[in-house]
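Question (not urgent): is this output format expected?
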Amino acid sequence: MRKNKGFSVVEVVIVVVVVGVIATLGVVGYNRWKQTQVVSKDTTAQQADTATVPEVKTTSDLDKALTTLDQADVTGTDTTQLDSQSESF
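Got this back:
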């Protein structure tokens, strides 16, 4: 009798199918995770946009504007709107 060494075609196909299913689940999970990250960044950006600085005409307006700037929650790296508003002082 001859001893068979190696894998049969059926065993190789089963392994390829299992690896494919695992890879598909991983890609779907990664895409869902990335989508939630984008949504949370958009929400943070919208919250930063709502904290606008009022127009300054008097010193009391300046105090209000400084208080608003102190309360602004800027967590992102894009602070161009905040920079442009602070330059107008």
